[in-house]
Each structure stands twice: as structure tokens, then as C-alpha cells.
Amino acid sequence: MPSPSCLWEAPADTVVAGDDPGELPGPWRLMLLGDGSPTRHLRLLTGHPVAVQLIAMAEEPGGQPSVRCPREVQELKPPLLRRQVWLNCDGQTLAWAESWWNQDEANEHLQDRNLPIWLSLTQGRSELFREVDGLALVQEPWLEERFGCSGPFWSRHYRFFRQGRELTVIREVFSPALEQWLGATPRQPLHLSR
Fold first, then answer.
1. Closest Cα partner for 153 from 135, 178, 173, 182?
2. Is the CATH number of domain 5-64+71-182 3.90.1310.10?
3. What is the pLDDT of residues 33-63, one digit of tens each?
């Protein structure tokens, strides 16, 4: 699947600084801008384990990322691998995610490719640092089909670091079905304060 088209993106420095993201309600701010594990949040919200459905995990054509990927992907050492998954709880699809990896890093850290990335990276209690780099509204017909509603959809992308070194760049797109637990959210560009 191609990476989703971004209709709107917040400047990364605005998101990282935690500036007021306009009309975004508090629970959605935590989900999108917090540095916690989204798979853990989904489990806590729904009361059900998160099932990872692997869509694809393959080398990027030419070993380089597409133009639709977050700019931070350019900082990863090629050749690159891209992994795409659906995140489901109790049979309901609540998110789609893609991640970019250096191939050697992927082979080292993703032994069980059906595990959530957070679990793969924290086995053995290794320390990680997550930095949220961007917030976006994205649109794709295949997301609408799987989520069962029209877009656009809230998305974020972030990097994981270990000992100051980038491991991966991850983009997540969240289903509006999460409004059942997080409350309603606008699905239009936010006016961020500067």
C-alpha cells in the first residue's frame, strides 16, 4: 500500500514543543502527542489485547523511501525496509501503522514480526526514547474502506531512539472508532498557536 496522502501537517517544532493544538480535545492530545505506547493505550481503552495484522514488510524500492514518507526517514541509513500493519482490538480495526527501518536494524529488533514494535524493542527492558515529530490529517480510499467511514483521519509520526541513535520512524493513523473512548474530535486542520 502506498503511504497516505497528507492533507494537513503541523510543523514538527510546534508539535514537539507541545504548543496548544487548537481545538483538539484533551484525550486526543494525549493519544496523538503523548510519548506513550499507542498499542498499550488501545489495550487500556478497549480492555482487549491488540492483535497486529501484518500487511507487508519489504525493502523500499531502490532502498529509498517514497516522497510521501515523513522527512525524518531520510535520516535512516539505507537500505530501508518498510513494515505496514493493522492494529485490531476484539475484531475492530482501530489503527494502521507503517514504519521504516534500516534492514540490519529490522532483522535485529523485529524477530517476531507479528508483535507490536513497542514489545519487540523493550524485551529485556532496554531503554527507549520516543520523539513525536509531526501531526497530520491523512486521506486514502483503502483507509476509509477498512475503518468503515470517510476521512480524513488523524495521524502522527515519531522516532524511537536508543542511546541517542535513531532506530525507526513510525507513522500511525487512527480510526474515528476511537471516539467511542476518547470523545469526538474535529477532522479538519487545526489552527496552531505559534
1. 173
2. no
3. 887 788 889 999 999 999 999 998 888 876 5
**CB-based burial, 132-166: b 16+ in 10 Å, e otherwise:** bbbbbbbbbeebeeebeeebbbbbbbbbbeeeeeb
Cα Rg, the chain, nearest whole Å: 16
> Cell numbers at residue 43, please?
489495550
Q: Where are the domains of the chain?
A: 5-64+71-182
Residues 145-155 have a mean pLDDT of: 95
Average pLDDT, the chain: 82
**Cβ distance 69 to 3 under 8 Å?**
yes
Q: Is 123 helix (H, G, I), strand (E, B) or coil?
A: coil
Which pTM value belongs to this model? Answer: 0.85
